[in-house]
Specification:
Number of strands: 13
Number of helices: 3
Helix content: 10-25%
Oligomer: single chain
Distance between the termini: 25 Å
Shape: globular
Order of helices and strands: HHEEEEEEEEEEEEEH
Strand content: over 45%
Largest sheet: 13 strands, antiparallel
């Protein structure tokens, strides 16, 4: 088995026997998110406005965690026509801001996404570029509000750690602080509330479905199969659903390069799992 699986297992075992701090909980979640060496999925994003009008966006997502445990992610927009050919590349760095790039087919060029633009919409959805990555435990001041909080998300009840996270660098995010409910069984946040400087909730994230799924090696992972983010100021929502996936089947490093960003060319992936 992979070394990092053993490390995470030890972390989980030690946390069961001792009281978690907020930082401990978030660190385990960050480590769990890195578990698959490789992954592929198709994301279906559905935008729904306050009047019920719907728009579907389909994205192919490729991920790799073999670069010293760092997570690299590539997004390839497939439809509708107004975003088809758009590609986004995120390269995680150690103790510094990730590198993020976007290719816009209308302009036929790739550009680095500056920090100020990472608070903006991801491909016209209610998710921002920041929402598409995981914040590490040392990026926020994390405080445990409750160590056994009950929360129900769309009919499913969870026992959670309730944690308040205040970013150290507030200029890099689109909110003042957030409150998260981390499920004690999976360490996955099932509800996140985002607040402004006046303590008004401006955005809500909900994890609608968690599935335990197996990669091609037989290792089992928790998968956030369905999610929703709501803009409480406009009433607009975006649902994100994983249509299919592959975990731990090796994919080409080509996906995580500037060349792929511009050309969109890389080897195909086989054996999709529904």
């Amino acid at each position: 088995m992979k070394k990092k699986i053993v490390i995470i297992s030890l972390l989980l075992a030690s946390f069961v026997l001792s009281a978690e701090t907020a930082k401990d909980v978030i660190k385990v979640f960050c480590d769990l998110d890195r578990v698959p060496d490789y992954n592929y999925s198709t994301l279906i994003l559905e935008n729904i406005d306050k009047n019920g009008k719907s728009e579907l966006i389909e994205i192919n997502q490729y991920g790799s965690g073999v670069d010293n445990g760092l997570k690299n992610v590539a997004f390839d927009f497939r439809s509708p026509a107004n975003v088809k050919g758009m590609r986004v590349l995120q390269l995680e760095k150690i103790k510094k801001a990730d590198d993020r790039f976007v290719y816009m087919p209308q302009l036929r060029q790739a550009r680095r996404i500056p920090m100020a633009d990472r608070t903006k919409s991801f491909g016209g959805t209610e998710f921002t570029y920041n929402d598409m990555t995981i914040r590490n435990e040392d990026e926020d001041d994390n405080v445990m509000i409750e160590d056994s909080s009950k929360v129900t998300v769309r009919g499913t009840s969870y026992t959670c750690w309730k944690i308040k996270s205040t970013p150290y660098k507030k200029s890099e995010v689109e909110y003042h602080y957030r409150i998260s409910w981390f499920d004690k069984k999976t360490y996955i946040p099932v509800r996140i509330e985002f607040y402004d400087t006046h303590d008004k909730m401006i955005k809500l994230y909900e994890c609608l479905k968690i599935d335990m799924v197996k990669g091609v090696t037989g290792i089992e992972y928790p998968l956030r199969r369905s999610n929703c983010i709501t803009n409480l100021e406009t009433g607009r929502k975006t649902f994100a659903t994983v249509k299919d996936f592959v975990f731990d089947e090796e994919i080409s490093d080509t996906y995580f390069t500037q060349n792929w960003l511009v050309t969109g060319k890389a080897p195909k992936i086989k054996n999709k799992k529904k």
